[in-house]
Amino acid sequence: MPMSDARSIVYAGIGGFALIISLAHLGGRLDQQLILGSFGASCVLVFGFPDLPFSQPRNIFFGHAASSLIGLGCLEFMGAEPWSMAFAVALAIMTMMATRTVHPPAGSNPVIIFLTHPKWSFLLTPTIVGAALIIAFALLYNNATRPQKYPKSW
């Protein structure tokens, strides 16, 4: 992979910082969790490598939503066992690949779910609302700081 220029590196870092601090503050004001551990890795993609297929809005939204849904379903119906957690990750990978919505950070959502045992509302917040906010922020920030347009595809 070629070295990124200094400007791109700084803007990627600022984008990641600004998004996570915004989600934290907004979540605090709304008394809702809007941050998911995998969102930090999503920041790497959307701000560091926004032109990759994995960084496109469709992949961010559906990758996170599908992986969380699968994790919640496997936890609910198979129990909190190592094999069911591994099955949930495998099923999330296969689903993202089959639907052409691969977003690698979302592959950790089933693991996060098995470690934290959230309620079904986790699918809405932080997963769906958070993914939508990542996309909205990435649209605004990337188009304001880069000459290339984001996204490359929907």
TrEMBL record:
All copies of domain HPP transmembrane region, residue ranges: 4-151
Signal peptide: none
The organism's place on the tree of life at top rank: Bacteria
Positions of transmembrane segments: 6-27, 34-54, 122-142
Key words of the record: Membrane, Transmembrane, Transmembrane helix
The organism of origin for this protein: Methylocystis parvus
Protein name: HPP family protein
A UniProt-annotated Pfam family: TM_HPP
